Amino acid sequence: MSAKVGIVIGSKSDLERGKEAAKLLEELAIPYEITIASAHRTPDDVASYAKRAAERGIGVIIAMAGLAAALPGAIAAYTLIPVIGVPLEAGALKGVDALLSVAQMPPGVPVAAVGIGGVKNAVLMAARILSLSDGALRERLNSYVARASGDVQSARSSLEGLPAAPDEAFD
Ligand code: RP5
Questions:
Q1: Percentage of the residues of the chain whose pLDDT score is greater than 70
Q2: In 28-134, which residue ranges form alpha helices assigned H by DSSP?
Q3: Phi and psi at residue 164, in whole multiples of 5°?
Q4: End-to-end distance of the chain based on CA atoms, in angstroms?
Q5: Among the four residues 45, 132, 157, 163, which has the most C-beta atoms within 10 Å?
Q6: Would you say the CB of residue 116 lies under 6 angstroms from ligand 1?
């Protein structure tokens, strides 16, 4: 099946974060592809990838970069596909620079910014977008959310020895 999510990382040094996204996309059985392209070092590649993505069947692009992270915005300038930008922690400002670059887009060129290093939320937002037209994915997302809720609830058993709120507090 052709890729529905395109992950673009700005550098090989971002690969671990790219792999995190890939792992969750696999868990949700969402076909994806990953590439490396830099808004500053390979701007022509960024433009051509963004321009061709829609005709290649990509439905959402997750763009991750650190420092003065122009990548998500540069991609969004060339396509109407929703772009989710992930600011990565890098350099002296630890991702705050990337966060502002990704979030503070000029009006007319939207990028859905997640928090610094917010890979998981980027993937889950991509999944929510794709699930609007994919009922089977919506079911898989529902199961994922139910598992996450169950994990929190069962974590309460670790409060043994503390004055834990009783079960009926949540009824
Ligand atoms: C950004 O600059 C990349 O996304 C990376 O997070 C950061 C550092 O890149 P390298 O100098 O390691 O290639 O463009």
A1: 100
A2: 43-53, 71-76, 96-103, 119-131
A3: -70, 145
A4: 44
A5: 45
A6: no
Residue type, 165: A
Residue 171: pLDDT band (50, 70, 90) is confident
CA of 103 to the centre of ligand 1 (A): 18
What's the pLDDT tens digit per position in 134-166?
999 999 999 999 999 999 999 999 999 999 999
C-alpha 83 chain-centroid distance: 9
User: In CATH, what is the architecture of 5-151?
Assistant: 3-Layer(aba) Sandwich (3.40)
DSSP 22-54: HHHHHHTT--EEEEE--TTTSHHHHHHHHHHHT
Extents of the domains making up the chain: 5-151
Which residue, by CA, sits nearest to atom 1 of ligand 1?
66
Report pLDDT digits (tens) over 95-127. Answer: 999 999 999 999 999 999 999 999 999 999 999
